[in-house]
Amino acid sequence: MSQHKEIKRVTTHQLLAMKQRGEKISMLTAYDYSMAKILDGAGIDVLLVGDSASNVMAGHETTLPITLDQMIYHAASVVRAVGRAFVVVDMPFGSYQGNSSEALRSAIRIMKESGAHGVKLEGGAEIKEGITRILAAGIPIMGHLGLTPQSIYKFGTYTVRAKEEAEAQKLIEDAKLLEELGCFALVLEKIPSALAKQVAEQLTIPVIGIGAGPEVDGQVLVVHDMLGITQEFKPRFLRRYAELGDIMHQAVTQYVDDVKSRSFPNEKEAY
Known about the structure:
With 271 residues, the protein is of the alpha/beta class. The chain contains 11 helices and 8 strands. Strands 1-2-3-4-5-6-7-8 form an 8-stranded parallel β-barrel, surrounded by 7 helices. Its main location: cytoplasm. It is found in: Cytoplasm. It comes from Hymenobacter gummosus.
């Protein structure tokens, strides 16, 4: 029997309740109105307006180039489509690492100008002051540990993080700190499954995984990846639920052929 409970609007309180009753949390990225409306209608719990828009929407190699203004534009588009899902927005690189005042200003802009329900930040103890100030302003925060793509040039690779004892221990300490500070949830990216399970069991807040195994409280994927729109990205943790890239290619190819052959539009499609 399904544990899914019908919710009119997902909130931080309901996400916590989902963890407590053992109901897994579903989360996908969204960047535009049309896609967000489909995802929300399908019953997704959380929509992440990810800085992965830098990759899948703008074609950049990393998430670093996307700006705060661009993130707000994407977030506002998503919020306008959503009636049920909780919408959380990535704070982009450079919008919060400098100092806590800048972090607070950036978070306030996201909330005021997009209508989103919360923000997501990458990092632990090193951004403690910024997290504290944002939370003090009443803005919900989702944390993000493990592989943090905004730090890709520090890591030098997108390989699995926290395989060594020292890094694993710091991740656990940072996760506990984020909960103590008041974050409502945490994303763990590309870390060993056993470590993710340990963190999820030790925290009372929901832990969402991407490449972190099945023993966490929910899962998140980039929607373009799971729908097969981006076809060159094939990490081990990704399951494709459709091959929309192939379907779209076939549709456009047929359209081109129909236009060239003058079979589109036909008499019924003309005024």
